[in-house]
Amino acid sequence: MSSDKSSDRPKPQHPPSLPEQEPKPSLKNFLVDNLPTVAVAVLLAVGVRIFIAEPRFIPTTSMEPTLLVDDRLIIDKISMRWQKPERGEIIVFNPPVNPVVPDASKVYIKRVIGLPGDRISIRDGKVFINDLPLNEPYIAEPIKYTLPTADDALCSGCFRPRDIQSRDGQSYFTVPNNQYWVMGDNRNNSLDSHAWGFLPEENLVGRAVFRYWPLDNRAGVLARPQ
Question: What are the boundaries of the region Disordered (predicted)?
Answer without folding.
Answer: 1-25
